[in-house]
């Protein structure tokens, strides 16, 4: 069945791979981005070239007005069926002792507040009691929530820990609303996020230390996200799917 989904941070990395896979499934995709318009348009173009429907939607997940506008924009594709709360960011490696307050606030703003705003808006628009038709919300957490990311970014790890709590609570709130809420916890995945945190070689360098001995690819995370979005996961809610090579 055709679905319409919104993916925050759909322009690059895990979000991009998810958008392309969902497009191949015949789903219509809202591809949110914050600054990289050409990357978002390339994803939209690739979905269109394969016969699918997609639209690029600019918006910062930390802005409530932007979040409302991005959900309004995706409605042009059809009634909403799913949301992937994926946009996230890290900062430079540091111990907590050396972190500025502003950096900690920013990390929580993007990874936690942004996720809460997008999950709230998705819940509002999918809830059957609010006129929605039910659906699926998938939050992209991180293995950092369980490992703590010492000497790199314990702020990010805590921000993702909050996403795990959100998943548990929101799944319980939405059980009678026809909305499933689940999370994936990626491990070391080969995307731009590591370079943006000043460690371009991080996935490759640390990937070899994982039980499977390698970093993961964004496409491998996309498979888990799309499964949780799909009706194949019809009895899964409040669940966590670790995609981390055993890390
Ligand atoms: P990425 O390659 O750096 O891509 C980040 C995406 O998020 C881009 O599409 C970016 O848009 C978007 N974005 C960033 N800030 C935003 C904001 N304020 N509002 C809206 N969009 C924003 O990252 P990734 O590795 O794919 O990570 C995706 C998710 O997986 C994140 O939540 C991350 O924490 C999580 N994760 C990643 C790993 C990993 O090893 N890669 C591991 C665990 C968890 P632009 O293109 O416009 O900049």
Which helices and strands appear, and what pairs or packs with what?
Blueprint: E1 4-7, H1 13-24, E2 28-33, H2 37-49, E3 54-58, H3 64-74, E4 82-85, H4 101-126, E5 135-140, H5 144-147, H6 154-174, E6 179-186, H7 193-196, H8 202-207, H9 218-229, E7 240-243
Parallel strand pairs: 1-2, 1-4, 2-3, 4-5, 5-6, 6-7
Helix pairs in contact: 1-2, 1-9, 3-4, 4-6
The structure holds NADP nicotinamide-adenine-dinucleotide phosphate.
NADP nicotinamide-adenine-dinucleotide phosphate (NAP) binds near residues 32, 34 and 191.
Unreliable spans = none
Instruction: Assign the CATH superfamily.
Output: NAD(P)-binding Rossmann-like Domain
Write down the CATH class: Alpha Beta
Number of helical regions: 9
Q: Which ions and ligands are bound to the chains?
A: NADP nicotinamide-adenine-dinucleotide phosphate
Number of strands: 7
Please name the CATH topology. Rossmann fold
| Main sheet summary | 7 strands, parallel
List keywords for this structure.
single chain; 247 residues; alpha/beta; Rossmann fold; seven-stranded parallel β-sheet; 9 helices; 44% helix; globular; binds NADP nicotinamide-adenine-dinucleotide phosphate; NAD(P)-bd_dom_sf
General description of the model:
It contains nine helices and seven strands. The protein is α/β, with parallel strands linked by helices and 247 residues long. It has a single domain, classed as 3-Layer(aba) Sandwich (Rossmann fold). Strands 3-2-1-4-5-6-7 form a seven-stranded parallel beta sheet, with helices on both faces. Helix 1 (13-24) runs parallel beside helix 2, helix 1 crosses helix 9 and helix 3 runs parallel beside helix 4 (101-126). It is globular, with a radius of gyration of 17 Å. The structure holds NADP nicotinamide-adenine-dinucleotide phosphate. Belongs to the short-chain dehydrogenases/reductases (SDR) family. Residues 191-214 are annotated as: Disordered. It holds the Pfam family adh_short_C2. It comes from Microvirga aerophila.
């Amino acid at each position: 069945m055709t679905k319409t989904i919104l993916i925050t941070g759909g322009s690059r990395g895990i979000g991009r791979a998810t958008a392309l896979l969902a497009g191949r499934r015949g789903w219509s995709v809202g591809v949110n981005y914050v600054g990289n318009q050409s990357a978002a348009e390339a994803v939209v173009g690739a979905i269109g070239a394969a016969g699918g429907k997609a639209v690029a939607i600019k918006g910062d997940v930390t802005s409530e007005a932007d979040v409302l506008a991005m959900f309004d924009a995706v409605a042009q594709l059809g009634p909403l069926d799913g949301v992937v709360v994926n946009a996230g960011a890290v900062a430079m490696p540091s111990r907590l002792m050396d972190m500025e307050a502003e950096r900690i606030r920013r990390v929580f703003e993007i990874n936690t507040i942004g996720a809460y705003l997008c999950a709230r808006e998705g819940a509002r628009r999918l809830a059957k009691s609010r006129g929605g038709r039910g659906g699926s919300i998938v939050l992209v957490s991180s293995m950092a929530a369980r490992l703590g990311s010492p000497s790199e970014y314990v702020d990010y790890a805590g921000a993702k820990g909050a996403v795990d709590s959100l998943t548990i609570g929101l799944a319980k709130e939405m059980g009678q609303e026809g909305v499933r809420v689940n999370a994936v916890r990626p491990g070391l995945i080969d995307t731009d996020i590591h370079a943006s945190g000043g460690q371009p070689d991080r996935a490759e360098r640390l990937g070899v230390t994982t039980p499977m001995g390698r970093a993961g690819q964004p496409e491998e995370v996309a498979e888990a996200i799309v499964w949780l979005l799909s009706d194949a996961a019809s009895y899964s809610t409040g669940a966590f799917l670790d995609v981390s090579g055993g890390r």
